[in-house]
Design a protein that fits this description.
The complex is a heterotrimer.
Chain A lengths: L1 H42 L16 H8 L1 H33 L3 H16 L2 H19 L5 H26 L4 H7 L4 H30 L2 H6 L7 H11 L3 H37 L7
Chain B lengths: L7 H22 L10 H5 L4 H30 L3 H12 L6 H12 L4 H8 L11 H26 L2 H9 L4 H30 L2 H6 L7 H10 L5 H25 L10
Helix pairs in contact in B: 1-12, 3-7, 3-9, 5-7, 7-9, 8-9, 9-12, 11-12
Chain C lengths: L3 E12 L2 E12 L3 E5 L6 H9 L6 E6 L2 E2 L10 E4 L11 H11 L4 H14 L15 H13 L5 E5 L7 H18 L2 E6 L2 H7 L2 E6 L2 E6 L1 H6 L4 H6 L4 E9 L2 E4 L2 E4 L9 E7 L5 E3 L6 E10 L4 E6 L4 E6 L8 E5 L6 E4 L2
Parallel strand pairs in C: 3-8, 3-9, 6-7, 7-8
Antiparallel strand pairs in C: 1-2, 1-4, 4-5, 9-10, 11-12, 11-14, 12-13, 14-20, 15-19, 16-17, 16-19, 17-18
The chains are: A mainly alpha, B mainly alpha, C alpha+beta.
């Protein structure tokens, strides 16, 4: 009896110690992830150009950043290409996912394998291969690398993510849903718009968000396909980091970090609230048969 | 739904912008500068054996560190209550949402000879370390950038393990170590495998990390390819040949991982 | 029963060169409850989908009120369907699900409200308008699916194994319920099932199908009492099917004996299938029976005992309300009425 108790106390102590150890360890990993970002942010307010010595508080770098027409242009390009690529690939990807769903197993699995290539392949290979295509085709058809090729490249690597996030939602759908809507008098187009689309909306929105962030975040593929006249923000940052120490980069990092953080918080608070509502609805027990 | 033809534009797009470019890479890899068929680029590659070896080695080291450091985090977070789980995962993902050039840049200032880390060491009266522009710095950059790619898939697999499986094992007399070794770890393997590919592939192909943190001294496969397309060494044929080899490396590593997973679908990040 | 409403003429359906429907002809009358009955893969669902407009027959014609409707898409047919797993729209509540067809046809809002309420009344779900369909039980979802279809005043309601997902007790309740709804709204129901009991309970007409063919059409009583071949006999209810020889009209040999029967019109000494229902075999003392055997097993089935009686040529399934001992020798009696003769299939 006493031994049993002692054992259980010992094991609970052990669990608590290992739990505490786990928490400390996780804390360390978080420190490793966030310390560099914290340093970046702190030194964006540093009055001197040094990346290591604190010389007082200033907002100069932010002002300089907003006056830097190169960066502002690059920012505009990034937003434009990301919005366009995400929108186009979401529309095209959703439609395509519906079509893929109706293919037979074999062609569908082949297409899904192709769909995964841009996701699993190294970015540099996707970038190089697209560059070869654009340069070769450009020589034949008389165009050069620029915004057009950049946009096409972005659509190419955004599309697979849209397909991947829409397909599971389509699969969850009752296979007769589309027919049911038509049975009730809806034309195929109405059935898609009024029933299928609302049913798969979470997947579509998710695809849009992923596509947009993939585009915003991309550097390597843009680097190979944008040519020399067009520059995205990531490309601008790359050339800045290569040339000189420039606290404008810190200022930019801070702004980006804060925007992402705010966005994430908003999205998650909303999501949590929706989930709670959905849960509440699900928890209401189904009533007995009447 | 009979509307399979509506996927035709997508199929054409993928053929044009995914398949055709890869075919071009293959064609270029076997084309001489004069335009004929050649194997010369592959022969020339023997010069770069050192770079190949170094790239693979650094990527493997980075992957191993990510696994060793990331698995416990994924495991600990996956078993927390839902609020902590959610916040924990957001904290893991948040840095990923910041451009990775900025993340890499952050380490430049930390690792410099008179950077913050060395200042801190000096402050403690310890000798400074010289890390920047070494292989070590490159590995740190890889681990820092890609660690979340290891944690997320493992986390999402462990999180989905049915609690009753664990309880069943305990009921059958397994202690927590046995439960982990015989139940949790095998079940989390798909996540581990996809984590490994998701870290290894970008590590072995990066040129940004080596450029920024290796100071051009550490030349990796990615650098080699990039130089063939943008540097003064301009030679897209050789570049394609090296890309082809890298593609094979990527495919082989994915195939190995799939073999380990015995056809189980790797847990996607999504 | 009144005039013909739907007619399938020589309908053939092929998928990838595989024949699913083998030139079937079927006539469905107005206001009848018709059931397509058969094992899975027999073509019953395909037949239903041809009527609904989701499949076009490879060959043959579909007539609706004497109009050929082969090329009329589903949304233009005055036919509605209750799907197998209901296919409710999960992003809408009960009201919006039922109102869907009315909204598509631009019915005035007040009218929609009135009719949806009326329908929910009909299917016994009054006051459920605001509920999310996911929060309903299987039986309730079933009722919503029926309301959603009937609210559009179709001439025909198609039901594709609608009770398949429900448990036994609920299924029985819904059978009565469906019959009541059909009589109340007075429209044609075409019902697909593989469950013979369901078919016999609810239908005016049962269509037995197998391997793309229609084997028999008739009232439940006809189908049960006068199965036209061994497949129908074995599929509907339980049967002893034994090979025999039709010596001449009204005389058949099986189990090494001659029996009087009521069938005629076979060739002399034609090999036939002899079908005898287990409840028609009467268990008597060995010397009183035409067939003698030993009881090999006795299983209590609730109302009756099911016994297997073995003799030299066959093992007979017998239903009896009296229990007997395993190993006991018994005789089996049967009258000419109990013997059903069928052409070899």
């Amino acid at each position: 009896m006493i031994r049993k108790q002692a054992e259980s106390i010992a094991s609970s102590i052990a669990r608590r110690v290992s739990g505490a150890f786990g928490n400390v360890y996780t804390g360390l990993i978080f420190f490793f992830l966030y310390a560099p970002i914290a340093v970046l942010i702190i030194f964006s307010f540093n009055a001197s150009k040094s990346r290591t010595i604190w010389a007082g508080f200033t907002l100069d770098w932010y002002i300089k950043l907003f006056q830097d027409s190169g960066i502002m242009d690059a920012f505009g390009t990034t937003i434009l290409v990301s919005v366009l690529a995400a929108a186009i690939s979401t529309v095209a990807g959703t439609v395509a996912a519906v079509g893929l769903q109706n293919l037979r197993r074999r062609p569908r699995s082949i297409l899904m394998a192709v769909n995964n290539i841009p996701i699993t392949n190294a970015d540099i290979i996707t970038g190089v291969s697209l560059m070869l295509l654009f340069v070769s085709a450009g020589k034949l058809m008389g165009f050069t690398l620029g915004f057009g090729t950049l946009l096409m490249a972005h659509i190419t690597f955004d599309l697979p993510y849209v397909i991947l996030s829409v397909t599971p939602k389509l699969r969850q759908l009752d296979k007769h849903t589309f027919e049911a809507a038509q049975d009730l008098g809806a034309t195929p187009f109405q059935a898609f718009r009024k029933v299928i689309l609302p049913e798969i909306r979470p997947g579509v929105v998710n695809g849009l968000i992923i596509a947009f962030t993939m585009s915003i975040d991309d550097f390597v593929i843009s680097y190979f396909t944008a040519g020399s006249r067009v520059e995205t923000l990531a490309m601008a940052i790359y050339s800045m980091t290569r040339k000189r120490i420039n606290p404008e980069i810190n200022a930019l990092s801070t702004i980006l970090f804060v925007s992402v953080l705010t966005l994430l918080i908003i999205v998650n608070v909303r999501q949590a609230r929706q989930e709670r509502l959905a849960e509440a609805a699900m928890l209401k027990p189904p009533e007995e048969e009447v | 739904m009979k509307a399979r033809y509506i996927s035709v534009p997508y199929v054409i797009w993928m053929a044009l912008f995914v398949i055709a470019p890869l075919i071009l890479v293959v064609i270029f890899a076997f084309t001489s500068e004069a335009g004929g068929f050649t194997l010369e680029h592959f022969a020339r590659m023997s010069r770069y054996v050192g770079i190949f070896a170094n790239s693979l080695f650094l990527a493997l080291v980075a992957t191993a560190i990510c696994f060793a450091a990331g698995y416990p985090v994924a495991y600990i977070l996956a078993r927390k209550e839902s609020v902590f789980r959610r916040v924990g995962m957001l904290l893991i993902m948040l840095p990923m949402w910041m451009n990775f050039l900025l993340r890499t840049y952050a380490w430049m200032s930390l690792l410099e000879d008179n950077g913050l880390i060395n200042r801190f060491l000096t402050f403690l009266g310890l000798p400074g370390i010289s890390v920047i522009n070494t292989d070590g710095a490159v590995v740190i950059g890889m681990v820092y950038n890609f660690l979340p790619f290891m944690i997320l898939p493992i986390f999402s697999v462990i999180e989905k393990i049915d609690r009753r499986t664990i309880e069943a094992a305990q009921d059958l007399g397994a202690n927590s170590l046995v439960v982990f070794r015989r139940i949790i770890f095998p079940l989390s393997l798909p996540g581990v495998l996809s984590g490994i590919t998701m870290v290894f592939v970008p590590s072995v192909s990066t040129f940004v990390i080596s450029r920024l943190l290796g100071g051009g001294k550490t030349l990796l496969l990615g650098d080699l390819i990039e130089m063939q397309f943008f540097g003064n060494a301009y030679n897209p044929y050789l570049g394609s040949a090296i890309s082809l080899v890298m593609m094979v490396i990527v495919m082989v590593s994915i195939a190995i991982m799939n073999r380990f997973g015995e056809g189980e679908e790797g847990a996607m990040l999504l | 029963m009144s005039k013909e409403l739907i007619r399938l003429e020589n309908c053939v359906m092929e998928f990838d060169g595989e024949i699913v429907l083998n030139s079937i002809n079927l006539s469905i009358k107005d206001k009848e409850f018709l059931t397509l009955l058969g094992p899975s893969g027999c073509g019953k669902t395909t037949t239903l989908r041809i009527i609904g407009g989701f499949e076009r027959p490879t060959r043959g014609d579909v007539w609706f009120d004497d109009v050929r409707i082969n090329d009329v898409p589903p949304h233009k047919r005055r036919v509605n369907t209750v799907f197998q797993r209901y296919a409710l729209f999960t992003h809408m509540n009960v009201f919006e699900n039922v109102a869907f067809g009315l909204r598509i046809s631009r019915t005035p809002e007040a009218e929609i409200r009135r009719r949806v309420a009326q329908m929910l009344e009909l299917v016994n779900l009054p006051g459920y308008e605001k509920r999310q369909v996911n929060s309903l039980s299987g039986g309730q979802q079933q009722r919503v699916a029926i309301a959603r279809a009937i609210v559009n005043n179709p001439h025909v309601l198609l039901l594709d194994e609608p009770l398949g997902a429900l448990d036994l007790k609920l299924r029985k309740e819904m059978q009565t319920e469906l019959k009541r709804i059909q009589q109340q709204v007075g429209i044609t129901f075409v019902y697909v099932t593989h469950d013979q009991e369901e078919a016999l309970t609810m239908s005016d007409t049962v269509v037995v199908m197998n391997q793309g063919n229609i084997l028999q059409v008739g009232t439940p009583v006809d189908i049960y009492n006068e199965p036209q071949n061994a497949f129908v006999a074995s599929f509907i209810g339980e049967s002893n099917i034994i090979g025999g020889i039709m010596n001449k009209d009204r005389l058949v040999t099986f189990s090494h004996q001659q029996f009087d029967c009521v069938d005629s019109g076979f060739a002399p000494d034609e090999p036939v299938d002899v079908v005898i229902r287990p409840e028609d075999l009467q268990v008597v003392a060995p010397e009183e029976g035409q067939i003698r055997g030993i009881i090999r097993s006795v299983v209590f089935k609730g109302v009756h005992y099911e016994m297997m009686v073995e003799n030299s040529s066959f093992t007979w399934m017998v239903h009896s309300t009296y229990q007997r001992q395993v190993g006991q020798a018994v005789g089996l009696r049967l009258t000419p009425d109990d013997i059903h003769i069928m052409h070899k299939s």
